[in-house]
């Protein structure tokens, strides 16, 4: 049998081929399927082992390995993502990611693609799905804590999917928040403190590399929805104990949250539901209460995106 050479897709190609509008329904379906684990057959439908994380102590970083197989869709995929605690002023990226798409029958790699654009887009779309389900009715104020790549993709996705009257941003260094405000396509108010940005907001997105809480429960308006995207290590925090214990907590994967989320593990907060269970209608969306969606990222989210990118690329050949 002839050998095949994988297609190589660079960041700008992936960015262009991955259209945000195509992602919402596909990611909702994947999250729902992941959380349907009642029968043996259902459990075998989505194979997603817990992320393996290799510490890169010398560089204050980690390499995360995220394989996934979706049986019905026949998508076999693996992402490698490295992430680092960078010093202020360091110009190396905080994240680098590559996604491999494989032929599940033969086992060969069919495409090697940049995983950074996939990670940025799919994470923001999953956050927006949580907001759609869990934010209070008539949400008017969006607050973003952090001003990096995820802040940008969340701004873009949230402004495309919702109509907030006011959007606020806070970053540790005010000039970074100002730079962010200049770079986005639309209005955003720069706040001098996380407290000023968060108080009174209906939806708060935390997208920082913080290892200590940046958002305190005492600042959060009752009934608000918090989307916590950072703090993906068992000893890292973005949210304080008050918030974690007061809120109804939703996650992408229970197994992942109890292994990787410092906010869940160290606060001792109980996870109420996976987002997929809300999508499936087996758990309630308590949107009238204060809610937290603790996002950690899943291999199936990358798998769905990689397949979409590859299919679009093939269509254009
Ligand atoms: N849940 C998920 O699926 C994913 C989560 N992430 C996580 O999201 C977070 C944001 O990622 P990116 O925007 O790509 O990173 P980035 O490096 O582009 O931006 C990080 C932001 O955090 C701020 N920051 C760094 N240390 C801080 C501290 N101690 N206190 C407050 N702010 C601090 C920086 O100033 C910057 O605004 C990271 O924690 C990352 O690991 C990233 C990808 C997927
Ligand atoms: O899901 C991902 O991709 C990531 N999650 C946690 C931090 C690094 C990237």
TrEMBL record:
Family per record: Belongs to the ornithine cyclodeaminase/mu-crystallin family.
Name recorded for this polypeptide: Ketimine reductase mu-crystallin
Enzyme Commission number(s) of this protein: 1.5.1.1, 1.5.1.25
InterPro entries recorded: NAD(P)-bd_dom_sf, ODC_Mu_crystall, ODC_N
Chemical reaction(s) catalysed: (S)-cystathionine ketimine + NADPH + 2 H(+) = (3R,5S)-2,3,5,6,7-pentahydro-1,4-thiazepine-3,5-dicarboxylate + NADP(+); (3R)-1,4-thiomorpholine-3-carboxylate + NADP(+) = 3,4-dehydrothiomorpholine-3-carboxylate + NADPH + 2 H(+); (3R)-1,4-thiomorpholine-3-carboxylate + NAD(+) = 3,4-dehydrothiomorpholine-3-carboxylate + NADH + 2 H(+); (S)-cystathionine ketimine + NADH + 2 H(+) = (3R,5S)-2,3,5,6,7-pentahydro-1,4-thiazepine-3,5-dicarboxylate + NAD(+)
Highest taxon listed in the record's lineage: Eukaryota
Recorded GO CC terms: cytoplasm
MF annotations from Gene Ontology: pyrroline-2-carboxylate reductase activity; thiomorpholine-carboxylate dehydrogenase activity; thyroid hormone binding
Subunit structure: Homodimer. Binds the thyroid hormone triiodothyronine (T3); T3 binding inhibits enzymatic activity.
A family per Pfam: OCD_Mu_crystall
Example GO biological process: thyroid hormone metabolic process
